[in-house]
Amino acid sequence: MQVYKAPLNDMKFLFKDFLYDGGFDIIFQNSDFEFSDLDLILDQAARFCEEELLPINQTGDGEGCSYERGQVITPTGFKEAYGKYVSNGWQSATLDKRYGGSGLPYVLGVFLDEMMSSSNMSFGNFPGLTTNAFAAIEKSASEELKDLYLPKLATGEWSGTMNLTEPQCGTDLGLTRTMALPQDDDSYRITGTKIFITGGEHDLSENIIHLVLAKTPGAPKGIKGISLFLVPKIIP
Predict the structure, then answer these.
(1) Longest C-alpha distance within the chain, in Å?
(2) Distances in Å between the alpha carbon of 18 and those of 10, 14, 31, 41, 162?
(3) Mean pLDDT of 89-118
(4) By 3-state DSSP, what share of the chain in percent is helix, strand and coil, each rounded to 5?
(5) Contact status, residue 233 vs residue 158, Cβ threshold 8 Å
(6) What is the average per-residue pLDDT within 151-175?
(7) Where are the domains of the chain?
(8) Mean pLDDT of the chain, nearest integer
(9) Residue 116 pLDDT more than 80?
(10) DSSP string of 132-195, one letter each residue
(11) Would you tell me which of 63, 101, 103, 136 could form a disulfide with 75, CB atoms 3.0–4.6 Å apart?
């Protein structure tokens, strides 16, 4: 029998006594966080991880994903757990309120991620990549793309991925061969092979937004020639 109890006392001590009262107030700026809500947020997150995610952790390892008629099917219980995860607001917890997030401090999200990863790492990979994709789009995309994609990523209706690895390169991204050819309508046609993409296909969300590393014609050699392209599974 698997057992997981979130280290709530340690987390609350770190948050209250070390961070909040220890001179690290800068990490709480630009946030509407109410300190009185801390216990409730962490307690609810722990309960979700212990009662919803832990019971399907072994299923994720033993059953795994399956491929049926062109569709990747996640392990038993994952889709239901994901529905509860997004409906309870965990996907949007630390995301910008301008796009539907709750605007909680990022450091609080680290505690939430620890609980999720400890109770069910297989499940945690899916929403974790969505958070990273959200951050990349928010940082670098046009306002048009932000307005179109970020609200759906914040709610978890859409999920995100990061497409880096290719057959000939993993961490050495300077060896990237995937090409992006400009088209007449200002879009790009992506040609190449990506492998081992976490959350690259699944049945949890309505759409999957892939962020793909590729090079354009004439780009410099090495990592300086890499660009990032937004490639939705379904064009909205």
Answers:
(1) 58
(2) 11, 5, 18, 18, 33
(3) 93
(4) 45, 15, 35
(5) no
(6) 95
(7) 8-232
(8) 93
(9) yes
(10) HHHHHHHHHS-HHHHHHHHHHHHHTSEEEEEE--BTTBSS-GGG---EEEE-TTS-EEEES---
(11) 63
Rounded to whole angstroms, how far apart are CA atoms 95 and 131?
8
How far, CA to CA in Å, does 41 sit from each of 32, 34, 51, 119, 134?
14, 11, 15, 17, 22
Distance CA 38, CA 82 (A): 23
CA angle 207, 159, 4 (to 5 degrees): 135
- CATH ID of 8-232, from 3.30.565.10, 3.40.50.12780, 1.10.10.400, 1.10.540.10: 1.10.540.10
d(CA 153, CA 145): 12
Give CA–CA dist 92/47, Å, rounded: 18
**Mode of pairing for the β-strands spanning 207-215 and 226-232:** antiparallel
pLDDT of residue 31: 63
